[in-house]
Specification:
This is Cupredoxin domain-containing protein. The chain has no helices and 9 strands. With about 90 residues, it is an all-beta fold. The chain has a single domain, classed as Immunoglobulin-like. It is globular.
């Protein structure tokens, strides 16, 4: 059994890294830490990945990412101005 994939994403005027690559079938999570008080980045959501999470300033928030299907899945801030992408590779 492969170890869980854990990716840290910094939220500061956007997402860094903006594209995250994961392996299909291996449990995965993203830990997002907002380091800027820029307005609409206080929420991150993804219909495709099934999460909608508040991001309090300087408090890491972890979301589980499904890896049962390969493909590209987007996530964005509350106003859909800043985008990130999760790529699940076969």
């Amino acid at each position: 059994m492969e170890k869980e994939q854990q990716i840290n994403v910094t939220v500061n005027g956007g997402y860094a890294p903006a594209t995250v690559e994961l392996k299909k079938g291996v449990p995965a999570s993203l830990t997002l830490t907002r380091t800027s008080d820029q307005g609409c980045l206080d929420v991150v959501h993804s219909d495709a990945l099934g999460f909608n999470t508040d991001l309090p300033l300087d408090q890491p928030q972890t979301v589980t990412v499904p890896t049962d299907k390969s493909g590209e899945f987007t996530f964005s801030c509350g106003m859909d101005m800043f985008h990130g992408k999760v790529v699940v590779k076969p």
